[in-house]
Amino acid sequence: MIRRRSLALLLVLWACLAAGRPAATTLSVVALLDQYAAGRFDAVVEALAADDVDFEDVLAQLRRDGPVWMDAGGTADRARRELVAATFALEAARAGAWRDWKRTQKQPLMCAEGEAAARAGCHQPASVLYWKAPPLLIEWGCEIFRRDETPRPIERWWQLAALAVAQRSEDTQFLTQDPAVARGLGTAEIGNVQDEIMHLLHVQARFPGEARFMLAQGIARDRVWPEDALVAYGSLNADPDVGGEAMMRLGAMQMRQRRPDDALKLFDQAEELTRDPYVIFLARYFRGQVHEQRRRWDDAEEAYRGAVAAVPHAQSATIALAALVFRDGRRAEAQQLVRDMLAADPQPSDPWRGFVHADDRFWPQLVGRLRAEIAR
Prior knowledge:
two-stranded antiparallel ribbon, globular
């Protein structure tokens, strides 16, 4: 009887809590597509940014209603409506990327009778991968373009924007595959490898000459299988567009692997290949870290000052420089560096904070290019 009363009490409590919990916002995807097509981009982004948006429902509506909506404008407006739908999917994916991206479910041990206690001879099945709505939204848009055997010009811009969203998620598996399989190991970490997306593979098949996609291969492999990253970065060492960033990232990888001399040479090479403040800042900031590790304080200070010159008031290099100056007894200068950094308006985007997000720094320009095409 006591157990029944306790269970009833728990059920009543759960019902009360559920009743007080606000329901998730239900968006009309068709209405949002109409707004996006009409150029009301900010209103759509604001709607997608609400805390309680159900992105699984957004994906379901796109799959159900998107094809009809794209057909509704007739042949003359079909290509534009496809771009609207695919770009809306990117906007939704980016809005939801940091909330829910994927789930990996570990499977229970498989043991023979009597072995479970000692776990001797037990087998651990590979985990099961479940993609959530944001990566599937990217793929939904990607599939629209892949219906055309020859890529249309605007697809390159869309794929670059899709890469920016994917890299912002900090999940490399979406771009490549199960790391254990990629390393050639006999046992995969993911059991349902047939459900892997491997987005970069079909993107590079459509744009084999796009250097940023090759660079993305290196970034995706950087920490998981560095041998492959070395090949990807090395192949770009003279590329006029991404060679500087490739060398900077390769230098950072060498720095982590405790090869400081190789890292410093690569940072020098990176600066020779680019005028991009983002790359120059990071090459100098990492150079400062190498010199600090070696207790070469004057060289470290010079490197950090160079980084601050590339991106004034960027927090990572400014604080590193202020710490060195303070350590040297120049307290007033250190305080002034920090005061100026805090007073900067607008605050600069710190390249170190965006290092792992790679091409996400290009998102405003890329989505702006797509929106301009939609508004034509």
